[in-house]
Structures are given as C-alpha cells and as structure tokens.
Amino acid sequence: MTDENQNGPSRRAFLTGAGAVAAGTLAGKASAQDDPAIAIKPWMQELGDGVDVSPYGMPSPYEEDVKRRTVEWLTADPVSSINFTPIHALDGTITPNGICFERHHSGVAKVDPAEHRLMINGLVDRELVFTMEDLMRFPRENHVYFLECAANSGMEWRGSQLNGVQFTHGMIHNVQYTGIPLRLLLEEAGVQAEGKWLLAEGADAAGMSRSIPMEKALDDCLVAFKMNGEALRPEQGYPVRLVVPGWEGNMWVKWLRRLEVGDQPWHHREETSKYTDLLDDGTARRFTWEMDAKSVVTSPSPQAPITHGPGPTVLTGLAWSGRGTIPRVDVTIDGGITWHEARMSGPSTPKALHRFYYDFEWDGSPLLVQSRAHDSTGYVQPTKDQLREMRGLNSIYHNNGIQTWAVDADGKAENVEIS
Q: Do 255 and 200 reside in the same domain of the chain?
C-alpha cells in the first residue's frame, strides 16, 4: 500500500517526512507572542444578541462581499438585465436562495398569491384555472437541479472578456425545488391527441413565453413553488414557476400563469430573434434546449486568488450536464500538458451541479488552470477552439468551452486563452 494517491499527499505522508514541512506551514504562528489574535477578544467576554434580534437569519457581516453582482454595460437598462451568482465564494453544490442569479425581461413581478391563477387551455378536454390553494392539493416532489442561462459564458465567444468566474460562469444556480409534476396538471386537463407542444407564459409585464415539446413537459418538468425548502423568492418567480431540468434557463418561465396546449411551436420572440445560435454561414440553430456538459475551476480564479503562498493547495470547481450526471472531471495546472482526475465530492444527481477538488502541493511557479468535464452519456467538454470550429464566432448562447485561468507566482489569477 502506498501513501500517495493521484490527488496529492496522504495524511500519513503529510504528518511525517517531507510532509512535516508543509504541516509546519499550516500550523501557523508558533506562540501567542507571534500572533496577538490568540488573545481574549470582546466577543469572548460579552453576551451576544438574543434569539429574536434577527427573525430571518442573515449571513455574518464579515461575509457581506458574497453577493450577486451585475455588469452595467451588458444591458441598456437594469430592469431587463442580469446579475451573477458569486460561485467563487461558495462550496458544496447548493446555492443559497439570496444569491441565486437573476435574469429579468421586465423587472421582478410582485405577485399577490391570493390573486394569482394558473390556466390550462388549448387542445385539452377541460380548460382549467387553478388557485394557489388548488395547486397545494396535488402530489408534490423534491428534486435538485441546476438552472443555467443559455448566455452563461456568452461574452467569451470571441476571447477573454471578464476577469472573474462570477461574471464568466455565474449565470447559474443549483437548488432543491419542491413542486408538482407538470404531467399531473396536464392529465387533469386531458391533453388531446394532436397536442404536441406546450406554451408556458409568465405573469410579468414582458409576458415571457416559450414553446416546450410535449415529450419534455410529460417527462420531468415541475410546477414549483418552493426552493431549498422555503417559498420562491420574488426574483425567482414567486409564487410559482416552471422547472425544465437540464434545459436553458429562459424556458423556466417565472410567475407562471398560463399553459396552452397546441399542435406546433409558437415561434415567439424568445425562440426566434433570441435564443437561437447564429452560425458562420448565416443559418441559425434553433430549439437548442439542452445545456451541454460544462465545468469551471472556481478557486483559484481571479476573484479567489491563492493567498497562502507555496504549499498544500486545494483547487475546486463545479461541473454539470443537462443530459445526466458528471462521473469524472479532469484538471490541469500546466495548460493541458498533463491532466489529473479530480476528486468528486457530494451528491451526484442528474441535471445538478457536481463539486470537484484537486489537492496538490504548489511550488510557487505560475499555473495554467483548467477543468474538463465528462458526463454520463460519454460527452467530453470541448476546448473553446473546438467549439468555435463547429459554431463560428457569431453565437451568444451555449458556450461550454474549457476555461483557463493563469495564476502568477503571487497567486493572482487572470482570465486568459491558450492554443
């Protein structure tokens, strides 16, 4: 049996021999004289706040930098805009509700649940209207899914643009949804034989709508009313939204008010002039619903530099696929000359985020950090050059190319591209 494995030194090696040097580095200061922070602090001598000071719990004020951020020049107006999840500051796989990214076409609709209705009409045996109270009487399920905007990483098609993983890859979150299988509501209405498509429409001022194939609607879609155990936030579609697992976020209609069954797609704005992929020859790919396998290293990255200097270092990131699970992620710290299989940790469920780690001994030399996801269908995440060879440079959506961070000798990281 060996003390070494593919992910770095074992605990035994770490505590003996050469590992002892690294252990001494991690142990920090030798005595209280060297580190005055070891002294008695005010919070060790004073009573803290009582249980009712914060009826709805908030993060520590020392974590106030962990928040959604926007890029002002991306859109002409903040009402029809987007902000980004701070994935560089998170660990595990579940995204806290308060920092899930937002994308709106007419701002956040402020819906009174008592006045909200969900209608099913079109090619059905019975046109129905549900109150929220009606919906609460249907069987419900709990599932963890990622939601990714099709434009995530879209600014990077023509080269490195934004220097932060929050901005290059932060149009994504991963939560547990509680909701009603959509098929149960459609069965209640009685979908007619010629009903092959479903139009989902939101109650926002934009009247957001998307066409969904009936096969998908009857498969794994949910009409969700809770996320991570609590009611949807207004910015996430309160009181009810559509969940379309593994497919682009624009189809997850928020403030869901109507479901119309038809015999063909509607070809509305969000599936014609938007959310199609323009190719080099002038033709456009349409109905590119599924999100391809993708991964990114979240630390080290431009917003999460290496600050501890040479020695034991933890590289971590996220991987996901709209077609299944992520059984394997490879990482490289030398720009792809050598690849190492990362350590997967946490739950592995279909169409959800997966967390990976690579533990290594950093010698202080510059790094070129990348990750490469393999999904359960056998698909392997492509390089940006491979993606551009197939799709050209006119696209905005569905950029799942491999991301590179250049880490210098001081541990600072920058968004770069390498051939």
A: yes
